[in-house]
Amino acid sequence: MPPFRTARRGTSPITIGLLLMLTVGFIYFLFSAPDSPTIRSATKSATNALSPPSLPFIKSKSDGQQPPPPVVHYYMSNLTASADPVANRETVLILTPLARFYPEYWENLLHLTYPHELISLGFIIPKGKEGNAAFQQLQVAVSKTQSKSSKKRFASVTILRQDTESPLPNQSESERHKMENQKARRAAMSKARNSLLFTTLGPTTSWVLWLDSDIVESPKTLIQDLASHNKPIIVPNCFQRYRDPQTNTPAVRPYDFNSWVDSPTAQQLAAKMGKDDILLEGYSSMATYRSLMAYMVDENGGDTNKEVELDGVGGTALLVKADVHRDGAMFPPFAFYHLIETEGFARMAKRLGWTSWGLPNYFVYHYNE
To answer: What is 77-366's CATH number?
Structure first.
């Protein structure tokens, strides 16, 4: 009878082979992250209407067979929204509610130095005569910019048409700012913003820049400048150029009063209001005594990087980390703590743990009618 062997003298080739296969498979699993930080097996352009909205969709020929929707894997933990978005190749979604088309707005957009291949555009246009005119003008501008010969093409452009008309009889500046129109106008604007956001926000989006269609002048490095502060929500100061009737010389004046620091007076006013009433800023009949960023400008030119923490923000030019919206912060079309639209958004974001910031000495300029 042969002696009992307690151990093998050597390892069989089959065992060594299995160990090698397991080791190679484990290493592949660890280091098989996609080339893009968030997406694998996605093409540069979408081939199906059900493809991710962050990718441009190219229609197939009418007689061609439509390919099936792609299966795409996203690695959200690798998505960044950093102080250096260009170096990290972070995608930006610029969203604009568009009631009127201003050529100066489009030219200002084209002059942004952020890589256009990392920018997607989204527009929402109301129903009605003015909306139809804005839509036609936008179509012309988009067709020219997105042509094959254009060097300023954007990654994608999405245009939505609302099925409702604006609650205002016209979109003139004087009509828009009447106090009695504010609740209906801003509720409608909130719904438009939310529709646009929820339709276009893709899983590869790092930043959302809300840019009103009447912002006609901003620094070419607007996106990089705002993102460099690495804040979840940040807003520049919005002013307006005009000709002073007293001196007949060019001058500037504050325009957006929705970026502010709250006050005890405003809180006391809110405490006495009905649940559906809203506080409004910039009206003498509703003095809130909040600290308005519009009046925080340093004389003789101050540090453009100076930051102030805000309780309310305006939406003329507003940069938001996409994760803030993904967490659920949207634009309430109803009284939310007696605030609505962009100011309500700042309050909702704060309830979710995100802080809003402003740059009192960094300017964008609103169209002057």
So the answer is: 3.90.550.10
Q: What is the pLDDT of residues 204-227, one digit of tens each?
A: 999 999 999 999 999 999 999 999
Cα(339)–Cα(331) distance, rounded to whole angstroms? 10
- Residue 46 scores a pLDDT above 60: no
**Contact predicate 93/200, CB 8 Å:** yes
Residues present in the chain in total? 369
* Closest by Cα among 223, 249, 252 to 239: 252
Alpha carbon distance 266, 312 (integer Å): 12
Report the SS3 class of residue 340: coil
In the predicted model, what is the mean pLDDT of the chain?
86
Cα separation, 231 vs 82, in Å, equals 9
194: how many CB neighbours lie within 10 A of its CB?
17
Instruction: Give Cα 252 to chain centroid, integer Å.
Output: 27
Rounded distance between C-alpha atoms, residue 232 and residue 355, angstroms: 7
CB atoms inside a 10 Å sphere around CB 207: 23
- What confidence tens digit (pLDDT) does each residue in 171-182 have? 555 556 576 678
Torsion angle of C-alpha atoms 217, 218, 220, 222, degrees rounded to 10: -160
Query: Which pLDDT tens digit goes with each residue over 97-149?
Result: 999 999 999 999 999 999 999 999 999 999 989 999 999 999 999 999 999 89
Residues sharing a CB contact under 8 Å with residue 19, sequence separation 6 or more, in sequence order: none
CB-based contact 70:47 (threshold 8 Å): yes
First-to-last alpha carbon distance for the chain, in angstroms, is 108
Among candidate residues 229, 238, 324, 321, the one with its CA nearest the CA of residue 281: 238
Cα 125 from Cα 165, distance rounded (Å): 9
